[in-house]
Amino acid sequence: MDHLAENVHEAVQHVVKNLTDKADVGVVLGSGLGSAARELEPEGELPYEQITYFPVSGVTGHEGKLLLCRLAGKTVLVLQGRFHYYEGYTMRGVTFPIRVLAGLGVGKVILTNAAGGLNRRYKPGDFMLVEDHINLMGDNPLIGVTDKALGPRFVDLKDAYDEDMLNLGAQVAGRLSMPAHRGVLAAMSGPSYETRAESRWLANAGADAVTMSTVPETIVARQSGMKVLAISCITNSVWQKDKTSHMSVVNVGNKASGLLARWLREFIREL
Predict the structure, then answer these.
(1) CA dihedral sign of residues 250, 205, 153, 22
(2) Which of residues 60 and 43 earns the better pLDDT score?
(3) How many domains are there within the chain?
């Protein structure tokens, strides 16, 4: 018997009891971007390990806290760190927090991530607003999910990323002189980085950046009826001569987190 809906409900009730009973906006902070949360002035926090059925993040750069923030009259829940398929979690585990956000009434979610630049115009420290994605993770979080309480089984993703949110995100970035492109995000399972041949193939397939997350969250958010905006911090170019390491990715993310925080504040205020 599938207990996913029951588990989500139990986790929601735990958040209601210890943090908040509802929220308007959800934010997921990716690798090295967790420090952006400080600029959102959190009023409360709940460690992941205290939330029923939540996985625990074991990756450097993912703090593992659910934060409560309030901006411009909006209640915002920030996931300071996420879970990855490459950590050994199932797709259900990876996307479980998104279902909890939905259970708390979140109608709009902002997903951030660290990504490798496939588009040769992208430089480390740039950002990319995600217009579309290519799921190459070899799995889908909706497989085996049949409970109608969680949303429709067959989800149309032609409008996976909300056009109004994309346009607003671009406008805010422009006002902040923030280098923000619009492009297509490819998702690979990781944790190894791409070979030269894989990078060429991804670029030829139409991808502008590549990551190891976000796409499963988008799929579940859309199944749950949430509007989605995703933004990638370009932490490296796949064409660079230097080797890519997780710490170099986190370091670039840390440097870019201040600008991301300002963008998040302005974007959420106008959302």
Answers:
(1) positive
(2) 43
(3) 1
For residue 52, give the DSSP letter: T
Residue 1 has pLDDT above 50, yes or no: no
Spacing of C-alpha 63 from chain mean position = 14
pLDDT at 59: 58
Task: Decide if pLDDT at 44 tops 90.
Answer: yes
Domain containing residue 196: 4-270
Interval 48-67 mean pLDDT: 79
Q: How far apart are CA 231 and CA 114, in angstroms?
A: 9
Instruction: Give the CATH number, domain containing residue 209.
Output: 3.40.50.1580
Positions marked catalytic: 31, 62, 84, 86-87, 114, 212-213, 236, 246
The residue assigned the tokens 């259970």 is 103
How far lies 193's CA from each of 86, 116, 238, 244, in Å? 12, 9, 9, 8
